[in-house]
C-alpha cells in the first residue's frame, strides 16, 4: 500500500522535531528536558461545508452552556442525583451551593464568568459531525493547535514532494487557525474590562494581570507558556500558581477586588487545574475532609470581582450529565436559555444520542442493543474514562443503583478513516498508519455571556488523530498525535 510513497529521511525527522521544540510544541520531562509532541506528517481533510457548519454551531453551543451555567436553580435541580452518585461532582455541587445559595435564598457571587470552552467533535461516517464532549475547564491546547497548522506549512515548504504524497487531496487548502491569538484576545478583553472597572477608584494605569492556576509538576507547560506569551503581547501581565500556593496568598481588596500577595490586584483567572480531586489534595494539610482547604480557595476566588474560567457553574454545565440532558430535551426547551428555535435546531444537529443508566436501559443494552454502537462514559475529564463493547455490560453489572447517575451511554462515533496512509512521528521515530481517524476541537471565548473574539466567539481549532484501532486518542493519555486541517470543496 505504501511502496510508492517516500518516507522522510531521519535527518528530516530530526529537523521537524527540533522545529517543534524550538516553537514550544513539547512536553516537559521529569529532568526538565523537553520531549517533542507526537505529530502527523500531513493534515487531515474535511469538507469545507462541514467545517463551516461547525464554526457556525459551536459558538451557539457556547452561548447555550454559558446561559445554562448562570441558571443556578436549574443546575441544582437537574444535577442533584448525579452529584450524589459522583463524589467529585458532589463536592462541586456543595461549592456551588455555598457560592449561590439555594432556591429560597439565592446569592450572587462577584465573579464575572469567562467561558473558555473547547467542544470536541468527530465526523461520523453515517451521521456527520457530532459532539463528543464539552470541555469547560482546563480547555487547553489552542496554542498547540495553531502550531500544528504552522508545522504542516513548514513541512510543505521544506519537503514539498514528500508532503504532497502523503496528502489525501492535492487540491486541499489549509484551514486558517489563530487559536492561540484568539484565545489570548478573549482573555485580554475580559482582563482589560475588569481593570477598567476598578481604574478610577484605584487611580491606576497598570496593565491588567492574568493568573493561571496550574497543577504541580505537570508536563504540559509549554502550551500554557505559549498562551502567556500571546497575552503579554496584548499588554497583560501573567502569573502561574497552584491551588496550594494560592491558599496562603490571596486576600480581598476594596470592591471585592482579588489580591495576590507580592503582586496586587488580579483581573482574570484561568483554571488549568481543578477537574479532579488530586488538584485539591495537599497531603501535608492532614485534612479530616479530603481536599477541603484547596477547594475553599477556589470558592474564595468566586467571591471576587474577577474574570473567571472555569466558574464552578461552568464546570457543572459542561458535565457529561448536562450534555445528556441537553441532548435528550426537545429543541424548543432551549428557549429558556435565549436560543431561537433555529439556533436550537442547529445545536441539536450535532448532538449524538445519549441515554441515562437505568435498570430498563441496562436490560435493553444487554438484550437488544448492538454493543459495538455505544460507549459508556462517567463524569471524568481527559482520557481513560470510557468503556467500549462487551466491557460495557461487565461494568454496568458492577454498578450499584446509587452509582447509575454518574454514568451515561452515548452513541459511539465512527469517523472517516483517511483514504491514504500517513506517517506518525513519536519519539523521533516515524511509523506508517493506515487507519488514522481524527477528532476536532473548536475553541470559543465568551465573557459575561458575550463573544470576545474576532469571529463571533470562535477561537480556532485543535486536531488530534489516532489509529482507529485505539480507543484512547489523547496526546497525553493515549495514542493520539497532533494534527491540522485542510479543506476540500
Automatic annotation (TrEMBL):
Cofactor needs: Mg(2+)
Q: Which residues are in the Glutathione synthase substrate-binding domain? A: 209-317
Q: What is its EC number?
A: 6.3.2.3
Q: Which SUPFAM superfamilies match?
A: Glutathione synthetase ATP-binding domain-like (SSF56059), PreATP-grasp domain (SSF52440)
- Pathway membership, UniProt: Sulfur metabolism; glutathione biosynthesis; glutathione from L-cysteine and L-glutamate: step 2/2
Residue ranges that the Swiss-Prot or TrEMBL entry lists as coiled coil: none
EC category: ligase
Q: Where does the source fall among the domains of life?
A: Bacteria
Q: Which UniProt keywords apply?
A: ATP-binding, Glutathione biosynthesis, Ligase, Magnesium, Metal-binding, Nucleotide-binding
InterPro entries in the record, alphabetically? Glutathione_synthase, Glutathione_synthase_a-hlx, Glutathione_synthase_C_euk, Glutathione_synthase_N_euk, GSH-S_sub-bd_sf, GSH_synth_subst-bd, PreATP-grasp_dom_sf
Query: What Pfam families does this protein's entry cite?
Result: GSH_synth_ATP (PF03917), GSH_synthase (PF03199)
PANTHER family in the cross-refs: GLUTATHIONE SYNTHETASE
Per the record, the similarity remark reads: Belongs to the eukaryotic GSH synthase family.
| Record-given protein name | glutathione synthase
Amino acid at each position: 500500500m505504501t511502496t510508492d510513497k517516500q518516507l522522510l529521511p531521519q535527518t528530516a525527522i530530526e529537523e521537524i522535531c527540533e522545529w517543534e521544540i524550538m516553537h514550544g510544541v513539547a512536553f516537559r520531562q521529569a529532568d526538565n528536558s523537553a520531549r517533542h509532541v507526537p505529530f502527523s506528517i500531513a493534515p487531515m481533510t474535511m469538507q469545507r461545508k462541514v467545517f463551516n457548519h461547525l464554526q457556525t454551531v459551536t459558538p451557539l453551543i457556547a452561548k447555550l452552556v454559558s446561559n445554562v451555567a448562570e441558571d443556578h436553580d436549574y443546575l441544582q435541580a437537574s444535577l442533584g442525583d448525579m452529584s450524589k452518585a459522583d463524589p467529585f461532582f458532589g463536592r462541586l455541587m456543595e461549592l456551588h451551593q455555598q457560592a449561590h445559595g439555594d432556591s429560597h435564598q439565592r446569592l450572587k457571587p462577584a465573579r464575572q464568568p469567562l467561558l473558555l470552552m473547547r467542544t470536541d467533535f468527530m465526523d461520523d461516517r453515517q451521521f456527520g459531525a457530532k459532539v463528543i464532549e464539552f470541555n469547560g475547564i482546563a480547555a487547553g491546547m489552542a496554542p498547540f493547535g495553531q502550531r500544528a497548522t504552522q508545522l504542516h506549512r513548514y513541512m510543505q515548504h521544506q519537503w514539498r514532494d514528500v508532503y504532497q504524497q502523503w496528502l489525501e487531496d492535492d487540491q486541499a487548502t489549509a484551514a486558517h487557525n489563530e487559536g492561540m491569538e484568539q484565545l489570548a484576545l478573549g482573555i485580554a478583553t475580559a482582563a482589560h474590562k475588569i481593570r477598567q472597572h476598578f481604574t478610577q477608584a484605584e487611580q491606576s494605569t497598570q496593565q491588567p494581570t492574568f493568573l493561571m492556576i496550574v497543577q504541580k509538576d505537570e508536563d504540559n507547560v509549554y502550551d500554557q507558556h505559549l498562551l502567556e506569551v500571546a497575552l503579554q503581547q496584548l499588554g497583560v501581565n501573567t502569573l502561574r500558581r497552584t491551588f496550594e500556593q494560592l491558599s496562603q496568598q490571596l486576600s480581598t481588596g476594596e470592591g471585592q477586588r482579588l489580591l495576590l500577595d507580592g503582586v496586587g490586584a488580579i483581573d482574570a483567572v484561568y483554571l488549568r487545574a481543578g477537574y479532579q480531586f488530586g488538584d485539591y489534595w495537599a497531603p501535608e494539610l492532614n485534612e479530616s475532609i479530603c481536599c477541603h482547604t484547596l477547594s475553599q480557595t477556589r470558592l474564595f476566588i468566586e467571591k471576587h470581582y474577577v474574570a473567571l474560567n472555569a466558574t464552578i457553574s461552568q464546570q457543572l454545565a459542561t458535565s457529561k450529565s448536562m450534555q445528556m440532558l441537553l441532548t435528550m430535551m426537545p429543541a424548543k426547551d432551549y428557549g429558556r436559555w435565549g436560543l431561537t428555535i433555529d439556533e436550537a435546531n442547529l445545536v441539536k444537529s450535532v448532538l449524538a444520542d445519549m441515554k441515562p443508566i437505568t435498570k430498563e436501559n441496562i436490560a435493553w443494552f444487554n438484550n437488544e442493543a448492538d454493543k459495538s454502537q455505544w460507549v459508556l462514559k462517567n463524569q471524568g475529564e481527559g482520557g481513560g474514562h470510557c468503556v467500549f463493547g462487551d466491557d460495557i455490560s461487565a461494568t454496568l453489572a458492577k454498578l450499584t443503583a446509587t452509582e447509575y447517575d454518574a454514568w451515561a451511554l452515548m452513541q459511539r462515533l465512527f469517523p472517516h478513516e483517511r483514504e491514504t496512509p500517513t506517517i506518525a512521528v513519536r519519539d523521533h521515530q516515524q511509523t506508517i498508519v493506515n487507519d488514522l481517524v481524527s477528532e476536532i476541537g473548536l475553541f470559543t471565548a465568551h465573557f459575561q455571556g458575550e463573544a470576545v473574539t474576532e469571529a463571533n466567539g470562535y477561537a480556532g481549532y485543535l486536531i488530534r488523530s489516532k489509529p482507529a484501532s485505539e480507543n484512547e486518542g489523547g496526546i497525553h493519555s493515549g495514542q493520539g498525535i497532533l494534527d491540522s486541517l485542510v479543506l476540500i470543496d
